[in-house]
């Protein structure tokens, strides 16, 4: 488990190797200095009485008052590092705005900030985010799923400490479907009403990805690899045509799935943690359940639906005047203890991504938390963040194809020609 005490030792390694960088020296030295191997838990990252100024950016929900998550963790970090006399300056910058805000003036940006992984390319280009190495990097890898690591990796370097995933999964009424039923979409469609946002690119791609489609190579970072629908694309399109025509299929559009759960006209829907409280209210405590996306069967072969997954993470500014302390605090904010505190203080609103918490009773008692963790581990692909993953290349043509399927323009008879035409709208390999 990554905890505050351990991080003190890891940070000490950085301080010893970075030398002057810990007290305002070269950011280049500091950002490459995390390869230290010493982990004496009694070591300090500051000399006794050292004064440190740290600016931290995060969403408003994490800093509403002194009992909020960010001030709580800052206090815990000071207690773990009593030699550091830290003056904190917190400002509201959401994870989704980090890239834009930091890029405006990297030198004046926060020492530590939370960011969404789709901001990573912008942050790296602006030289406003530092890579983790050595013991820090190993700790991150030990406590994050490979999907989460990939989400915060750019050109082979890891730039963030993931603290929660951004993905979707399935909510269902446990009085209609059993835990075994929800493993297979086809089984579910025999027993109850299933709502799915067929016209939404973010969701629809799960079928093609599950059957072998790829986005910009195996890891989503090779623009020259283009987008491939794979060898099973026509069969998947025919499956989706049949899905749309199934009397137990319901299109989820503009909140209709959630409304259907409430009035009983829908028994399962696909969404994320942002809908957890509303779904629980709609189904009631006794019927409220969640699971990773199910499999689907095409021509006798079972394929796993694969949801897009991203991450929210903690980064540090390599230009910080106190870069070693900033780096240590960034890792502290992404630690096991801090992630659990984040979950508890936000009342389940931030599901931890730390794999050490996957068996924690606080987490395992929350169906949405378990479903999200299982989805990331077993039923997801990393959403590419390269510039080529844009509206023209992906989001618009996929949405339009889903709409064409739902409207009946794509049929079993013309599935091959329509799928080929769809493939022609996507960037080919160079």
TrEMBL record:
<dbReference type="InterPro" id="IPR006059">
    <property type="entry name" value="SBP"/>
</dbReference>
<dbReference type="GO" id="GO:1901982">
    <property type="term" value="F:maltose binding"/>
</dbReference>
<dbReference type="GO" id="GO:0055052">
    <property type="term" value="C:ATP-binding cassette (ABC) transporter complex, substrate-binding subunit-containing"/>
</dbReference>
<keyword id="KW-0732">Signal</keyword>
<keyword id="KW-0813">Transport</keyword>
<dbReference type="GO" id="GO:0015768">
    <property type="term" value="P:maltose transport"/>
</dbReference>
<feature type="signal peptide">
    <location>
        <begin position="1"/>
        <end position="20"/>
    </location>
</feature>
<dbReference type="GO" id="GO:0042956">
    <property type="term" value="P:maltodextrin transmembrane transport"/>
</dbReference>
<comment type="similarity">
    <text>Belongs to the bacterial solute-binding protein 1 family.</text>
</comment>
<dbReference type="Pfam" id="PF13416">
    <property type="entry name" value="SBP_bac_8"/>
</dbReference>
<protein>
    <submittedName>
        <fullName>ABC transporter substrate-binding protein</fullName>
    </submittedName>
</protein>
């Amino acid at each position: 488990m990554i905890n505050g005490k351990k991080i003190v030792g890891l940070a000490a390694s950085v301080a010893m190797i970075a030398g002057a960088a810990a007290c305002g020296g070269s950011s280049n030295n500091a950002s490459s200095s995390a390869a230290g191997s010493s982990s004496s838990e009694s070591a300090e990252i500051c000399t006794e009485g050292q004064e440190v100024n740290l600016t931290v950016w995060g969403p408003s929900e994490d800093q509403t008052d002194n009992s909020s998550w960010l001030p709580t963790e800052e206090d815990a970090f000071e207690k773990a590092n009593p030699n550091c006399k830290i003056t904190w300056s917190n400002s509201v910058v959401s994870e989704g705005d980090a890239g834009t805000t930091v890029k405006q003036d990297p030198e004046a940006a926060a020492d530590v900030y939370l960011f969404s992984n789709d901001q990573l390319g912008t942050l790296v280009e602006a030289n406003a985010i530092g890579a983790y190495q050595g013991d820090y990097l190993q700790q991150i890898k030990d406590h994050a799923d490979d999907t989460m690591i990939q989400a915060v990796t750019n050109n082979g370097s890891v730039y963030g400490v993931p603290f929660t995933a951004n993905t979707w999964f399935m909510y269902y009424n446990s009085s209609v479907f059993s835990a075994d039923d929800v493993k297979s979409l086809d089984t579910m469609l025999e027993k109850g009403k299933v709502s799915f946002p067929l016209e939404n690119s973010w969701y629809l791609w799960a079928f093609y990805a599950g059957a072998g489609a790829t986005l910009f190579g195996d890891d989503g970072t090779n623009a020259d690899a283009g987008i491939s629908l794979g060898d099973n694309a026509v069969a998947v399109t025919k499956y989706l045509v049949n899905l749309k025509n199934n009397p137990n299929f319901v299109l989820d559009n503009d909140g209709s799935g959630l409304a259907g759960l409430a009035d009983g006209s829908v028994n399962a829907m696909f969404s994320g943690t942002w809908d957890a409280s509303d779904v629980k209210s709609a189904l009631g405590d006794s019927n409220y359940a969640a699971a990773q996306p199910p499999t689907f069967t095409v021509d006798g072969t079972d394929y796993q639906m694969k949801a897009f997954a991203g991450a929210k993470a903690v980064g540090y500014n390599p230009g910080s005047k106190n870069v070693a302390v900033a780096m240590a605090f960034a890792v502290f904010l992404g630690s096991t203890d801090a992630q659990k505190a984040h979950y508890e203080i936000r009342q389940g609103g931030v599901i931890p991504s730390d794999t050490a918490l996957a068996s924690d009773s606080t987490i395992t008692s929350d169906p949405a938390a378990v479903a999200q963790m299982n989805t990331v581990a077993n039923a997801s692909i990393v959403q590419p963040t390269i510039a080529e993953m844009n509206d023209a290349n992906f989001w618009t043509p996929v949405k339009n194809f889903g709409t064409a399927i739902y409207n009946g323009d794509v049929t079993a008879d013309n599935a091959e020609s329509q799928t080929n035409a769809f493939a022609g709208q996507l960037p080919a390999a160079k």
